[in-house]
Amino acid sequence: MIKGAITGLGKMGLSHAAIVGVHAKVDMVAVCDTSSLVLNAFNKFSKVNTYTDHQKMIDVEKPDFVVIATPTKFHFPMVKYALDNGVHVFCEKPFTLTAEEGKELTDLAVKNGLVNQIGFHNHFIGTFRELKRLLHENVLGELVHFSGEAYGPVVTKEKGSTWRSNSAEGGGCLYDYASHVINLIQEIIGRPEKIQGTLLKSIYSKGVEDAVFSLLKLKGGLSGTLLVNWSDETFRKMSTSITVQGKNGKIVCDATEIKIYLKKAVPSENLEKGWTIKYITDFAIPVDFYLRGEEYSAQIDHFVDCVEQSRQSEYNSFEQAMYTDSVIEMILEDAKK
């Protein structure tokens, strides 16, 4: 059995703990948080050892891997300590507060030969994987435009501040919401190299943006838009979509379906002229434990497999997340113009 541990028991940390705790290949030996309320619950209802100190947990338990799901400002020191002590790391997004910090952690993980993965869970949703595959097969021909969008009801009224309302701690719509979309664009379509026309809008929050609108230019010249708003209460929960237009048609993809419009049929893909709609049920990744969506278990399953096989993940590596952080920095710089 692989020994696993969790640091940070907020919403995402508890979700990861539930998945790791029942994983057939993992013995979850410890959890760490500063909340006595949460730790008391683990003490009462589980046999997992509890800690309030991340470093002490690593030193005493010596886990094979740790899942870090703390606020972003703690990621750098916690990930670094784990890597320095030979522990594989799954870390929640966004990776770090600066691309420079991300570069240092990426280099350290590679140097120590440790598996590293970031929680950009959309890459474990089958429809987005199908979009990437179809673009690779060139079904749209020459690409002419793309749009990455995300909307949700995170901040729908003025309220008191938390770390999510402090950009210095990784708060704000750009870090929390838009990072998902930027990462999807860079890994499915191409890496942004230039940013123009950025608007960061505060709607209810003070000190951080609630909406991000920006023009992204990719390597090779393709351009498209980033449209993200976490103050849109017309959505029940976060909704993320990617639209790609080419000279042979258009694909609209989200977490539930992929809609393909073609001017000319592509027989090799069994795609006819006109609209074809396929649903997530055709592409969902099978998992043994379902919680919130198969993608959350699938990303942990993949990480555990990589640890077991001592191979680096092709999905959501530190290097990929570091690039997403560098695009965030480019957007922030462009917004100052």
From TrEMBL:
Record has Oxidoreductase as a keyword? yes
**Native species:** Maribellus comscasis
Please report the name of this protein according to its UniProt entry: Gfo/Idh/MocA family oxidoreductase
Give the UniProt keywords, A-Z. Oxidoreductase
Could you tell me one molecular function GO term of this UniProt entry? oxidoreductase activity
Q: Ranges for the GFO/IDH/MocA-like oxidoreductase domain? A: 128-251
The signal peptide annotation in the UniProt record is none
> What range(s) does the Gfo/Idh/MocA-like oxidoreductase N-terminal domain occupy?
3-120
Q: Spell out the Pfam families in the cross-references.
A: GFO_IDH_MocA, GFO_IDH_MocA_C3
Q: Which InterPro entries match?
A: Gfo/Idh/MocA-like_OxRdtase_N, Gfo/Idh/MocA_oxidrdct_glycsds, GFO_IDH_MocA-like_dom, NAD(P)-bd_dom_sf
